[in-house]
Amino acid sequence: MTDGLQYAVFYGFLLAFAIGPVFFTLIETSITKGFKAAVFFDLGALFSDVLFILIAFYSTNQILEKVKDDPALLIFGGMVLIAFGAISYIRTSKSFIKIVREHYSVNTKKNHGGLFLKGFLLNFVNFGVLAGWIATIVIAQAVTTHKNGVLLFLATVMITLFTTDLLKIFLAKRLKSNLTPRFIIKTKKWVSILIIGFGVILLLQGIFPEGIQKGLDKIETLE
């Protein structure tokens, strides 16, 4: 029953360092709002992962075809990420005093429910994550032979992912005392810009799916 679990641990560790909007926002949240706030954000993102896993596990073929053949999903996700990043950038530019207060005050009240929802939505609108979990299920089916092996594989991936995220949050939090509010504002702005960038990539994949694929094929050929 434990066959393939070493692959699950390794795979969960790799997922924790997958570069995306959640990765950068998690680090930024830990630096600017603290450990507990970042944990709530991360739990929201992980909850959306659980929903994706359930969708992929019980309707893999149908969902895979939907993601593959319906670019409207990518366009929608891209537009949401672009809007989210733009709003975040504008709000950061107007909230210098608030960020200074958060940086120097340990008693600043934080909306943990809002952070949970933020993590959930930021991960859920990225439909590429769904495709990634579909691939994960395929991998799990290939490396395990027990009837409950796939579920154990997925549980191990999620536990490893969350544990590694906690380590990232802890390390990022340790940096806060060495950072100035001005640096934090720049960090928040760059995270917003990166989120917009990921949104643009999703949007282009939805509008020009064949062109994006040809570009990726050319890059692979050059390598």
Name some characteristics of this structure.
223 residues; mainly alpha; 11 helices; 85% helix; 0% strand
Question: Would you write up a description of this structure?
Answer:
- The protein has eleven helices and no strands.
- By secondary structure, the protein is an all-alpha fold.
- It has one domain (5-222).
- The longest helix has 27 residues, at 149-175.
- The model has no long low-confidence stretch (mean pLDDT 76).
Looking at how many chains there are and whether they match, the oligomeric state comes to single chain
End-to-end Cα distance, whole Å, is: 39 Å
Provide the residue-averaged pLDDT. 76
Query: How does the major sheet shape up?
Result: none
Quickly count the helices: 11
Pick out the low-confidence regions. Answer: none
In brief:
The chain is mainly α and 223 residues long.
Secondary structure blueprint with pairings:
Elements: H1 5-16, H2 21-33, H3 35-58, H4 60-69, H5 71-93, H6 96-104, H7 112-124, H8 127-143, H9 149-175, H10 181-207, H11 209-222
Helix pairs in contact: 1-9, 2-3, 2-9, 2-10, 3-4, 3-7, 3-8, 3-9, 5-10, 6-10, 8-9, 10-11
